[in-house]
Amino acid sequence: MAVTRRAETMEQNRARLISAARKAFAEHGFASVSMDELTASIGLTRGALYHNFGDKKGLLAAVVAQVDGEMAQRAKAAAATATDDWEKLLAEGVAYIRMALDPEVRRIVLLDGPAFLGDPAHWPSQNSCQEATRQTVVRLIEKGVFKAVDADAAAYLLNSAALNSALWIAASADPQRALPRIIEAFTQLASGLRENTIQALMGDIAE
């Protein structure tokens, strides 16, 4: 029982630290947040931080993973009404890009995350997203919707395009103006993988 209670306490402390850090990082930015003040605000010590996350960057990584995971779920929800795999793929990508306008996402995932944790393409949350995209690409190739391209390469390209589009918006001086421009470019890029793209364009020209 004592071991169970200890494990429960550790899990609760971990959740409290992530919740407090998420709020502080979103409001003040990672670099400006004092770990002494953060831990004291929830009645814990720096020892609890080190035990659960190793250091301040480890705590940021946990917060980024939580927010980025929620972004993936929000993107899936936005594509729930899509009629086929292609529309779903496109809708999820566009939804992810739109989230760059969310102040919390912008600060934690798109600005501080890359600045202090390195290339987002190597984050575990991005790896899981890429695998989900790869599976969709495989289905689209099998159905003849996509050209016969390498599924791993295509998934990496699409995920990178969505991620870097969001990063571009986050760094923009005018995110609202940048958003429709990058969504149009992303849509055109993704559409280039479709088997019927050339035929459709030829049809438009003929008309």
Provide keyphrases for this structure.
10 helices; elongated; 207 residues; 78% helix; HTH-type_TetR-like_transc_reg; 2 domains; Rv0078-like_C; TetR/AcrR family transcriptional regulator; DNA-binding; mainly alpha; transcription cis-regulatory region binding
Short description:
It holds the Pfam family TetR_C_41. It is built from 10 helices and no strands. It has 207 residues and is mostly helical.
Question: What letter string, H or E per element, gives the SSE order?
Answer: HHHHHHHHHH
What's the shape?
A: elongated
Ends distance: 76 Å
Domains counted in the coordinates: how many?
Answer: 2
| Strand portion | under 5%
What integer value in Å does the Rg equal? Answer: 20 Å
Number of helices: 10
Number of beta-strand segments: 0
The parts where pLDDT drops under 50 for at least 5 residues are 198-207
Q: Considering DSSP H and I runs of 4 or more, what fraction of the residues is helical?
A: over 70%
Average pLDDT, rounded to a whole number, is 90
SSE class: mainly alpha
* Main β sheet profile: none
